[in-house]
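Fold this sequence, please.
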Amino acid sequence: MAKRLGTQLFVSKLSFFTNHQELKTLFSPFGVVKEARLIRDPKTQRPKGFGFVTFETETEAHKALKAMNGRIVRGRLIFVEFAHDKASKTDTNT
């Protein structure tokens, strides 16, 4: 059975100066970006250095992952992977 990869990417090791628009612009050459969001500390509202980018299709997300994973952006080596549902981390071995 083929595993569905999804359309949402997790992007880590981002510069703390990266904003939502820059993140969206960075990934838009690979397809239609439906959402680009950075995660912030709830108390300080400072960026945590990671975020999520959601594409319209799995193909676009896969293209972006291949092109952007391990790329240097704003002087930092970023990592890109498919986002996982919180529920999928509780799978048991069968």
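The chain has two helices and six strands. The beta strands are 8-12, 33-40, 47-55, 72-73, 76-77, 79-82.
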